[in-house]
Amino acid sequence: MKAALKLAALGVGYVHPNPLVGAIIVKNKIVIGQGYHRVYGGPHAEIEAFKNATEDVSGATMYVTLEPCIHFGKTPPCAHAIVEKGIKRVVIGMLDPNPLVSGKGIDYLRKAGIEVICGVLEDEAKKQNEIFLKYITKKEPFVIMKSAMTLDGKIATHTSSSKWVTGESAREYVHQLRHQVTGIMVGIGTVLADDPSLTTRLQNGVGKDPIRIIVDSNLRIPETAKVITQISDTRTIIAVTEHADSEKIKRLESIGVLIIRIPSKNHRVDLKALMIELGRYEIDSILLEGGSELNYSAIEDGIVDKVLVFIGNKIVGGNAAKTPIGGLVIAEMTDAMLLDFDSIHKIGDDLLIEAYLRKRIENNVHRIG
Description:
Elements: H1 2-9, E1 22-27, E2 30-36, H2 45-51, E3 61-66, H3 78-84, E4 89-94, H4 104-111, E5 115-118, H5 122-128, H6 130-138, E6 142-150, H7 168-180, E7 183-187, H8 188-194, E8 211-215, H9 226-229, E9 236-240, H10 246-254, E10 258-261, E11 264-265, E12 268-269, H11 271-280, E13 285-288, H12 292-300, E14 306-312, E15 339-347, E16 350-357, H13 359-362
Parallel strand pairs: 3-4, 4-5, 6-13, 6-14, 7-8, 7-13, 8-9, 9-10
Antiparallel strand pairs: 1-2, 1-3, 11-12, 14-16, 15-16
């Protein structure tokens, strides 16, 4: 199962909104076939494993990280293929939370006389597919709030100098994250201050650009901004309220920008409503790289699932220097927003802390604690 999980990870960035799945076929204690879900719309992991099998798979055991599908989608049901191929035993990492599948694939296999074992390395399988787990059950994107700060909690100096808080290794890691998610979201403040590209720039040249999502309540974005004018395989989405200039909207739409009108909340885009709308566009995951105000709004509106905080090996000091979270001040420590820490990694000279918002427990979404 560990090997199957490693195979599944090879599909990161290419299969969404489908899940990551790996499969291995073993016969007489020898691996005779393996595969993973490579691309959205392509063959599932089980079918890839059958295609790559070096001998007849009848009587073999299949290890698969996710319950085999039983419904007709872009491909035929994998559970049917497993029965037809004569697999004797199936070991599964986790149940598929998709209501079209959940438990039905296992029932079908057992009724066909196949031995089924489920829940092997279940925690690891769930964490690998945490994006899919949320999207398939709620139809809203899994939101990862990324921030980089100095050891004393500053995202810039008092003069707004912010290049660079972290080193090259951490920045390369962020571009890997951009490749892995469907969308990247910033506020108009970031666009006006930095004019970012919001593209994926990996050293090996491999990687896809995420869909660029700009939260711009009053449509203040310059029509010369890089997120509008640059050449990219993915589009730019701008979320606005009813106060946006209708003529400017028409001009931007004429050059391919998607404008989404969202109801306002406290004179700004209602981020929860925006997530529901983005889910309709099959955007299953978002890397939030906003400034302190958007970060606070995202937490306040309850859209953040996971937090990635890079801590640079620097100290800048200063009461006027910005911190990662702005917004209203919490007066009592007992009212502070709680996190469940997951892991700490050293990346180059910097640290990366991964954590989940405590609300994930209330929503009964898996976490590692």
